[in-house]
Amino acid sequence: MSFPKDFLWGGAVAANQCEGAYNEDGKGLSEADLLLGGNYETPRMFCSHIMKDHFYPSHQAIDFYHHYKEDIKLFAEMGFKTFRTSINWSRIFPHGDDETPNEAGLAFYEDLFKECKKYGIEPLVTLCHYEIPWGIVKNYGGFTSRKTIDLYVRYAKTVFTRYKDLVKYWLTFNEINGATTAMGQYNGIGYVAPEDLASEEPIPLNQLKDDPQKRFEGLHNEFVASALAVIEGHKINPDFMIGCMICHVTWYPLTCNPKDLLETEEKDLMFNDFCGDVQVKGEYNPLAVAYLKNHGIDTSYITDEDLAIIKEGKVDMYTFSYYMSNCVSVDPNAQSIGGNMSMGLKNPYLKASAWGWQIDPDGLKYTLKKLASRYPGVPLMVVENGLGAADSIEEDGRIHDDYRIDYFRDHIKAMGEAIDEGVPLIGYTTWGCIDVVSCGTGEFHKRYGFIYVNRHDDGTGDFSRSKKDSFNWYRKVIASNGEDLS
Fold first, then answer.
1. What's the rounded Cα separation, in Å, for the pair 442 and 10?
2. Which class does domain 8-479 fall in?
3. 315 — pLDDT class (breaks 50, 70, 90)
4. pTM for the full model?
């Protein structure tokens, strides 16, 4: 396996899952701040106001806001070449439509990025990672309003300008394709139906009223906003590398029944490829447009002016998350995988994590080769990949996470093989390089990091940091540029 000499090894987090300090230094509420915790069996709950005596995981998270220097030093010790994080939009514009940005928020990220650069770590920054300001959700319906396009572009230009000499790599929206599903309506485009917004009682996130028409209109507005951000970003610094970010779930037909194959191709088109085609190729796939129309979506919101903007604002690189693969079948009796990502069917050839996520490193190689073929010449990055698990601390204080090392070893091998077969992969950031709040379940119990954070689902813990066995293993991997995986 031959990883490029300048390969960007690193790790990834999101502001709402790590920073905490949800109401400090002028920060406003974001959509994540209205979500209660959950677990494997209990979905996260939403309420349109902060309820007393309830635990909100994002409010303190792992307190990265006050520990970032300590954490960046640990990342440097592992040898990180890049660190992916996000800017919490409501830390810059507390309500989303404020006349001027919040200087304390701008200064925090400037200090954070300078701390990274001090150790030779390149920041990789997501502009919108499920952190739409609550004011935009409440007052504008998130990205269902075209006004939000203007607010987003103003925010993007503000941070592009402030950090033009500190940040080279940018992502416009995290897992933008999540909005193609009902579960992505809240996190993805920031829309809550009026009756849910008016409710005084918490509502399970998966029971918020779904409005497919608004979802796809909101997604289109995000396409336009992303393209405008790319255009403006290149004006501010032509050297910026600005990418999309897709949640890639690899699908296989469960059987050789041709109908299973047709069902799989449709799922692959609308979940994995639809958004990538718009952002990388700069145009809507006509098959995707036909799918929308055939499923009752009025696509008149797609204007010629918007299409011209989307064509001009193509991204420079394709980045994606990869955790699992799932099977697809037309058989109504086929077995679901279960878990909090029960989007597909059980694959009899694969093992799964304790949360039901099927472990498939070969699927990553397959996905990389498919993307390299679909988008020839476009640099690729895997910006999320990891194993959520319940770690335990031994009496001597050590944390043995061989299961995580095995997971990463197999996926890194798959990436190396893909590179040797011609895939232009330029970087890899593991998800949750330090333990964070799980987005899907709102748990601390589901841990991803090389670094253990003493923080728990009952709100206890002193936020102290401890190295897991995987910490030293990943340090060795980076030092050898992927050659030593032992």
1. 24
2. alpha beta
3. very high
4. 0.97
